[in-house]
Specification:
Signal peptide: 1-24
Domain C-type lectin: 29-110, 150-265, 290-406
Organism: Amphibalanus amphitrite (Striped barnacle)
CATH topology of the largest domain: Mannose-Binding Protein A, Chain A
Shape: elongated
CATH architecture of the largest domain: Roll
Protein name: Lymphocyte antigen 75
Distance between the termini: 36 Å
Pfam families: Lectin_C
Structural class: alpha+beta
Radius of gyration: 26 Å
Number of helices: 7
Largest sheet: 9 strands, mixed
Amino acid sequence: MVSKVHRGASALIGLLLLTGYAVAEWNSHGQYQYYFNNNRVYWDQGLAFCRSQKPTAFLARPITENAEFLKGFGSAEMYWADHSYGSQGWAWSDGSPLPAGDIHWYSGYPHLSASVVSRGLYERSSAALMNDEPNNYKYGGPGWLDVVTGDGSCYYLSSSDPDAGNFTWDGAAQACADQQASLASVPDLITFYALSFQVRGGGQNVWTGLISVPMVGYSWSDGSEFDEQLKQFIVPGNGTVGYLSADDGEFHLADADQSAAFACCTAPAPAPTTTAPPPAEPCPAGWEQSEDTCYLFSEQHGYWTEAMSACHQEEADLLSIHDDMLITFLVLRVGNNTFWTGLQNQNTTYVWQDGSSTDDIDLVEPYLDPWQSGKDCVAMNTELYIPKQQFLIHDDCFAENRFVCQKPAN
């Protein structure tokens, strides 16, 4: 079963509260100002544009009092309106209900997610709705959607997937990794507005990749740059990781061991090329080979989840260990540097990030130092190897270490 996200393009009308605010090219009517944008955009792009002008702005809300005004202005045939159809019927974009006296204007096409004001055809019927061609829809698995921010990223909301469960923050990060994605990062305000709108409509709080590091600031678990403008939408708290709230659409901080729905994001794979020759060597440049596997010993540092995302960008996984020869190779190679592995302690159970079996975990247990509370991710460092034969150390998953990626040799 595929899901559909409305992608019909139309012009837009912005609606802005007049109080203390005036904008050139806006037209006054009653207590509001209206901006008619004749460029064709998608509905959520229009909503994001209005809110980028001022947080209290929204798409035009056609009601009895302004119907004739909206019909008379603008040169485009159709303009996006603020209402959409959800599980509770027609409502404004902020979730509030339409006026009871006007609800009959929007009946007839409940399968459409947004409506338009049709210039010159504004009747007491569903004539103001636009039915788009099938190629104006985004198809994907349940929960996946394109929030139409222009960067080509796709987002997954587990709250929209009937088969998805709730997880702790670490569990959500792994669930995203299983789909070749990362916990959602929000690169800019436009993406925030679009994603926040989807979360509020879904009715569940969702984990994101937001991390709060004391004395440092905010960052994203996939290593992408944090836009300082987003701070205005972060509710202060004592937690270390962030979720988007279904109540107010803003980021809230919480402890990572709480369970919630989650959001993932991924950029579409680049189009394949036929000009690049296959690699002549078993491993890419900068990688090292041992047996039939290639290993990348990174120079960069990152949290455990950042390391995992960096390996996935290389079409690889964090290191897993399943034979004695590899242990010898690693001890000789690692030295006194600290590198993340793919081993993690989840509720006293060890798991490898790449999903490989832990039936042979007794192979590495003699090299593990004792577990300590709050140190659930395993790294490598040979400082303890000589006195205690230990080179696998438990560390805080938010510590910044180098890491080792692995993938099969060609």
